[in-house]
Design goal:
The chain has an eight-stranded mixed sheet with strand order 3-6-5-4-7-8-14-13, sandwiched between helices. Strands 9-10-11-12 form a four-stranded antiparallel sheet. A two-stranded antiparallel sheet has the order 1-2. The protein starts with 11 loop residues before the first strand and ends with a strand. The chain is an alpha/beta fold. The longest helix is centred in the N-terminal third of the chain and has 15 residues. The protein has eight helices and 14 strands. The radius of gyration is 19 Å and the shape is globular. Helix content is 22%, strand content 28%. The chain has one domain: Rossmann fold (3-Layer(aba) Sandwich), CATH 3.40.50.150.
Amino acid sequence: MACPADWFSGGRGIFGQRASFFCASHPTFRLPRSPFCLSAEQATIGIVRRKRVSPQSIHHRTSGDVDRYYRTPLSVQSYDAFNALAARTAVHFFVSQAKKFGSPVLELGAGTGLISWEVAAAGFEIVAVDLSAPMLEQAEEKRAAYGRETGNRIEFIQADMVELALDRRFNLAILPGRSFQHLTTPQEQRATLTNIAEHLHPSGGLVMNLFDPDFLLCLPGARPPSEEHLAQDPASGRWFRRNFLARKTDPLRQIFTEAVRIDALDAHGHANEGEETEWSLRWSHQQEMHYLLELSGFTVEALYSDFIGSPPAYGQEQVWIARRGK
């Protein structure tokens, strides 16, 4: 399950300010390799298919069209173009939390590794998990740019965060880019949080961000953003255009689905390749999330409305910091 590109685009979105994602810093020292880190020569994407034993069957929509956006070719190719800028703010926050809780770090919804690589470059060991194989392949392509020392600290695994079962424990779990909101039922959300707690050491940390819903924009019939978004891929220099075609809102289930068109542009700004795709996200209220975290075995330490520590606010961001245990 990849990070929702929706919070990394430009313009005003349905649930608050849209942004864009990232920058880079390189390490000046090397941590000892842990048994689960890969060398540059050994780099492959691991695949975890083993399911957790659960007393309750979970209808897991993320294996279907709900995350089709993160598997279609242009969606994956343009992901960094639309998301790289916002990371310049977000990455410093997640690195600061890694400094607080320590290695190793587990990232769920890693996407193309925009956060993962920067956490590794800052000196932390990290296992980065995503459901989308094409997104992880693009993340692996960055290995050469970051070098062997940073590459030795990162491993990418294709797996479902709801059913993830690793024989490892972590000091910190992170879910950047609103990836948690691709879990479109309360059952999936609670199962995932419980699963995360099981993968953390006692008093291990959980850090994630969601959008805070603007209730006036949650009504059926709400129109998608009318502006088109242009962005350039930071590595290839290739330009892309993104337009929102339609939005379907389900207030009862707290889900919205957006249809999106992405075009690749030539040197003259003309589309030479295009595709239509979609994504779905579930919104959660602040009190709902606080209760859900407590039910799943966490104690909430802080809630912010942005990545610089501003107090909670309506219709902005929910940035949660929690710790395993009561």
